[in-house]
Amino acid sequence: MIPLPLREAALVTGGQLTGTDDPNPLITGPLVFDSREVTPGSLFCCLQGRSTDGHDFAARAVAAGAVAVLASQPVDAPALVVPDVLDSMGRIAARVASEFTGTVIGLTGSAGKTSTKDLLKSILDLDGPTVATPRSFNNEIGFPVTVSRVETGSRYLLLEMGARGLGHIASLCDIARPRIATVLGVGSAHIGEFGSRGTIARAKAEIVHALPVHGTAVLNGDDPLVAAMAGDTDATVVTFGLGKDCDVRAEEVVIQHDGRPHFVLAHGSARRHIELRVHGRHNVLNALAAAATAIAAGVPTDRIAQGLREAEIYSGGRMEVTTRADGVTVINDAFNASPESVLAALTALSDIAGPTRRKIAVLGEMAELGNEAGTWHDQVAEQVVRLGPAEVIGIGSGHMDRMLTTITAAGLTAAMASEGVPLIEEITRVLRPGDVVLVKGANALGLEAVARELAGMPTP
Known about the structure:
- By secondary structure, the protein is α/β, with parallel strands linked by helices.
- It has three domains: 4-85, Udp-n-acetylmuramoylalanyl-d-glutamate--2,6- Diaminopimelate Ligase, Chain: A, domain 1; 100-310, UDP-N-acetylmuramoyl-L-alanine:D-glutamate ligase (3-Layer(aba) Sandwich), CATH 3.40.1190; 320-455, Protein-Tyrosine Phosphatase, Chain A.
- Helices cover 35% and strands 21% of the residues.
- A hairpin with a 2-residue loop joins β15 and β16 (270-275).
- α3 (85-99) runs parallel beside α5 (142-148) and α13 packs parallel to α14.
- The protein is globular, with a radius of gyration of 23 Å.
């Protein structure tokens, strides 16, 4: 963290220092809201959770090295007592961001944010010290935590921005205003909350509106709703996609037998052959977004190519492919499930299995789709029928019942997961050596833990 006197934090939050004799304690570590992650000099934020209250851990956090705690009530520890802890986290992060002299990059989209962020970080790390959003810390809690991790010597601050309504991204940009803003796509994730794809587009466009005139908007030229955002800014616009008119393009795309894409990265007269380590043809577009963003940041082409070739998706639960000793390949794509990501994961299952290996699909019901839920589950069912897996196991209720009915009517074997039987046992019963099994579903279903156990990996 860029050091910040606690008294200055009190000024920007309107808070009051209590329980300390130090005339000017200095915050040298990041904001933290989990007492187990406290580091010396950090500021522990006492947030109220569903079952725990951060105020109960104040003394423990200070004993572990926190300089103080950010609290909304008196505690038995040095504290900055503020009217609202979450709001104050944003204010402190904004103060830190104002001291940062490097490049702030914001990234949003309905799907692919975290994968693209991981790919882009691989590139930026080669160009200079980079602080990036860990995991999916892209909301009003995780965002200020990430911003607070930036240091004086950092060159890039790479921020993933999520939204569940209008104004959410704008408020994040108020904390750290991006100089480069990347929009991946407008899909159907959370459409039940937004109401329409048009409203989703308006929410995503807030990141473009926040750009300064000397900034750059990096836009998906293949998505009409995103491409139209070029008219929302006076900043420079760079487009990426498979279309021939895009500034940064993929040419000669080939999907290898293991599901890894190869392509030629094209920008102006530059051409570089890219062999991705990550799986799934949908990651070609994510790689293009990462490359276009790096170009906007001034990273040399050879460094971009090297970063893409070496990149891995380290956030977990996103096209995490593991092959066991018995030849079974487990595709853990269970962190979340927007309709577009489910369709992409099913295509990846087919690509990895090829024509000879049996395909098993473990699919959870998709959430937060509102009135479009039935239509999207029908589309997924149609995709399943086209790909023809040997077995389909469904987890969910009404929409999943309808989906499985469509699949079985086409002559495929599909059934709902049995109640009272551990899912891992049910999957294991249908597996044969050499099979490829996809585990995909909404985060609330907890399928990521199942996928990791199936792959023989420890649960983090």
